[in-house]
What does this fold into?
Amino acid sequence: MSQLQLCLVLSSFLFCIGLIGAMARSNTILVLLGVELMLNAANINFIAFWRYGPDHAAGTGILFVLFSIAIAASEAAVGLALVIAVYRHQKNIRLQEANRLKG
Amino acid sequence: MTLALILLSVLILGSAAVAIALRNLIHSALLFVGCWAGIAAFYLWAGAEFVAFAQVLIYVGAVSMVVLFAVLLTRQGNELEPVKDDSFNRFIRALIAGGSVAGVLLGAILGTPMDVNTASPAPTMTVRELGARLMGPHAAALLIVGVLLTVALLGAVVLAAVDRSDQPEDAP
It folds into this structure.
């Protein structure tokens, strides 16, 4: 197994841990952190393909990861603000009980 | 090189899995910090220094603090409650779905011949080159990301702020 394949295996396991966390936990903060783990796995893929790809000088992988980290940071800020707003309305942050808009 | 990568993988995956499985939110937030620090070490291993420092500054520094504040502001203190039956069922279903996704991805990775550029030394990209690229061909994207961050953080403040105008008992 080459090192590129090791990096890809690492990122796919990290993606799956994030997926399991986002689907299994009922705490909204942990669901958000699972989504963050999935974004990090995608970033690891970008860096791995930049490292072992044919064209290092263009630096496309690094640039894309920088923009992706910025998007992930804004997503985390807005998501945690939503968590606090939900907590103020229903006094807990269980996802199953946030069903006020359900028809 | 490969041994370092395997050690980093064990650190990252172990702390992420334990953080997802724990019931204590503070402990899992701190384990997530360890996981992000491990990812930053992976970026250093791969030769992307600037991305590693950005990961340390943004994730280990900023996002972890925001997460810890959110955990402390939404404290419930019900960690001693027994695990409900439906959450166990949901965990089993999530495990099945995640395991099948992992199987599909592993089959695709191991079944694809990838022998590109493996023998070359680690590439380096200095911060000067990176800055020239960000300010030259990608300047528009950088501006748009700045505007997006400003709008998102202002929106977060608006969402999380308490609206005092509808509480007449607070009025003088």
Q: What stands out?
A: Chain A touches chain B through 70 residues (CB under 8 Å). The mean pLDDT of chain A is 89. Chain A is about 75% helix and 0% strand. The CA atoms of residues 85 and 93 of chain A lie 10 Å apart.
